[in-house]
């Protein structure tokens, strides 16, 4: 069975074609600048790393998807002879609210539900839907799976997702914690259980999806009991350019002092805060490390603020789950930044967390970095959201 995985942004589209018999990626690619001048596609045939690049007008997602299909079926750089060899399409879909709590097939009813939630994810849901509708038009009758970023977090108990504001706002507008990065948290928590040779229903796992956007999840017996992102992806730990949790009264104070509008505040919290805001250098951790090495004290402070916030959530989740069996680092920073992993795990021996520095400096997709005598296993697992989407889609059509 071959499944095409689609991840649509407002002006971009990432894709992979996966042979589910051995979970092998046959081809992958990226379409950029959809609806903008100089739209382009970069398509890679994985087996021989052959790359095909093309620049052409792509006014919308349907035209972009048409070009993806052409790339996949092209006699020179494609990997299938025609569309009949593709059995289904799995779509990364961002927000399902409370109405859909698991992966589902793309039916008219389910599409309508997602459309009704566009105000909860105004930048992401419309783009996801454009991709789904484009595929349905170009591949009529082909099964389509919808795999949601929020779904894995739907097991949170009410005490974890209800905000202590007037309850009517939850009832009227669905204002609550939803959580994001769910597909990544689901993949790495399950993969961790496989590596440890244990049933995930017997484990307490904290997954750390640390990238430019970042979130943690407490996964107890295979179900999320809490996560750091909230009503939006702005909440939680400090991130590349996002503030994470702050005292909300700061907004009123700054609006008064700086004469700031709501749009101004939104831009500050989402794009000018976090690691960038504290350091004044960059939102990229590589730049932060370089600046710190050069003696930049604010870069050093930014890193310390980040690590402090991550540790605060670790402690909270260990308390909520009454212990932890494994920590799993993933995503761009979690997978590639050995220093951040070391800083996060330092001075946590009393919680049963102890890493081996030599193991921590490995450069593999999957490895255990905890010391042999550490009661808690600390792991590095490269996330694979595309494979998780393909697996969910396969389950749906079977």
Describe the fold and architecture.
It contains 15 helices and 14 strands. Helix 1 (61-73) crosses helix 3 (125-138), helix 6 crosses helix 15 and helix 10 crosses helix 11. It has 2 domains: 2-148, ATPase, nucleotide binding domain (Nucleotidyltransferase, domain 5, 2-Layer Sandwich); 197-385, Nucleotidyltransferase, domain 5 (2-Layer Sandwich), CATH 3.30.420. The chain has an 8-stranded mixed β-sheet, sandwiched between helices. Strands 11-10-9-12-14-13 form a 6-stranded mixed β-sheet, with helices on both faces. It is of the alpha/beta class.
Task: Offer a quick outline of the entry.
With 398 residues, the chain is of the alpha/beta class.
What spatial order of strands do you see in the largest sheet? 5-4-3-2-1-6-8-7
Quickly count the helices: 15
Strand residues, percent: 15-25%
CATH-level-4 superfamily name of the largest domain: ATPase, nucleotide binding domain
Please give the CATH architecture of the largest domain.
Answer: 2-Layer Sandwich
CATH level 3 topology of the largest domain: Nucleotidyltransferase, domain 5
The N- to C-terminal Cα distance equals 11 Å
Order of helices and strands: EEEEEHEEHHEHHHEEEHHHHHEHHHEEH
What is the overall pLDDT average? 94
- Rg for CA atoms: 22 Å
Largest sheet, if any? Answer: 8 strands, mixed
